[in-house]
Design brief:
It contains 6 helices and no strands. The chain is mostly helical and 153 residues long.
Length: 153
């Protein structure tokens, strides 16, 4: 990847780790920077065609390369959390126990408080808790990749 598209070397390393993991998960076939550029160009062309055909385009109508990278990095994490059926052949998800969900709920009570101060019940936010735990699992996988890369240097 080219450092000019990132604010720091650390940010670039993080993106590389995310692309490596996305390839492992089967979300992309190629994690090279040239492939990122190609996907960006294809996405921009698809959005341009939709506009020409009078279709609705949600979000931006044209991605700069840095914006597209951010879009993909966000998409990878969301897919990991919500597309388990699509990914399960390439990744062995950790089991989430009911006790782990309850512990998360109790440890993060501030996340589950309404504007007026009362709290959501566990049942109301159980799906959100599972997603937050999956997000942490994703983040840990990225950290592991970053550690492996650091060990090689």
């Amino acid at each position: 990847m080219d450092i000019e598209y990132f604010t720091s070397n650390r940010e670039m390393q993080y993106a590389k780790a995310c692309y490596t993991f996305a390839k492992k998960l089967g979300l992309i076939d190629d994690d090279s920077f040239n492939a990122v550029k190609t996907r960006c160009d294809a996405e921009n062309k698809a959005r341009e065609e939709k506009i020409k055909n009078g279709e609705i385009v949600y979000g931006v109508t044209h991605f700069s390369l840095p914006a597209y990278i951010q879009y993909e990095l966000t998409r990878f994490k969301l897919d990991f959390v919500s597309q388990a059926e699509k990914i399960k052949n390439n990744y062995n998800y950790k089991e989430i126990s009911h006790d782990e969900e309850k512990e998360f709920f109790e440890s993060n009570a501030d996340l589950f408080t309404r504007y007026n101060g009362d709290s959501f019940s566990f049942g109301e936010v159980e799906a959100v808790i599972r997603k937050r735990i999956r997000e942490a699992e994703y983040d840990n996988e990225i950290k592991n990749i970053l550690c492996q890369c650091a060990d090689r240097q």
